[in-house]
Design goal:
Layout (H helix, E strand, L loop, with lengths): L1 H46 L8 H8 L1 H5 L5 E7 L2 E8 L2 E7 L7 E2 L19
Antiparallel strand pairs: 1-2, 2-3, 3-4
Length: 128
């Protein structure tokens, strides 16, 4: 009887582990459209409204609380360099995405890499 209970518990743990992994992957996929919107809003705050780079997150939290709620479990870093806004999304000190404001795609997806949370795009440019 005890052996069956341990086997059942182990099986539940294994199934829960797989389900947790698939939910995390699904969550990251759902985050991508929000990231493009976040990048667009951050770029607009800097270029059109003149918000200093250091205050962009405060501005976004105040003016776009629903959008920012989607990123509550993530570390958001924003930089503006060479006329390009770069948004970095991290979690648990791991870089997940880095997005540039000059196109409609997510520029760098680091989810399958084990990179420390840091900007990896140096001298961003919108010219190909």
């Amino acid at each position: 009887m005890r052996k069956i209970a341990y086997s059942t518990l182990f099986l539940v743990f294994i199934i829960g582990s797989f389900t947790g992994c698939s939910l995390r992957s699904e969550e990251l996929v759902e985050l991508k459209p929000d990231l493009k919107n976040l990048t667009k809003r951050a770029n607009s705050a800097i270029e059109r409204r003149g918000i200093p780079q250091a205050k962009v997150k405060v501005f976004l939290n105040k003016n776009y609380p629903i959008l920012m709620e989607n990123f509550k479990d993530y570390d958001i870093q924003i930089k503006y360099e060479n006329g390009v806004t770069v948004v970095l999304i991290c979690q648990e000190n791991r870089a997940l995405f880095e997005d540039l404001s000059c196109d409609i795609r997510i520029d760098y997806d680091y989810t399958n890499e084990n990179l420390q949370c840091a900007f990896y795009v140096k001298n961003p440019s919108c010219e190909e």
